[in-house]
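Sat 14:20. Reprocessing the chain from the morning session after the first attempt stalled halfway. Input below, unchanged.
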Amino acid sequence: MQHIEWDDFQKVQLRVGTIVGVEAFPEARKPAWILRVDFGADVGVKKSSAQITDLYGRDELLGKQVIAVVNFPPKQIGPLMSECLVTGFHREDGAIVLAVPDSNVPNGARLI
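Finished this time. Tokens:
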């Protein structure tokens, strides 16, 4: 494992946001949702592609708080310009479990 310096970690903006929109993403190579995540007034609403369809349905995702990296440059994923990276963990079966706060916090709160 490679160690990083504290300054490196400080550069990564991990923030909490609430999923306010979920759309099908049929153009994705692997099944995915297009998420719109509200990170509060300072960051705003950002879009992301998330390959989480194995464990999460549209209704379950709406209103869910997630942790995402909000300061990566936008990335083109098929027809979608992804603006943030929603975080999660791979299970042995390949499904992704979202990284979420265990209690509600304000949108835009930064992981420290």
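The helical segments are 6-11, 58-61.
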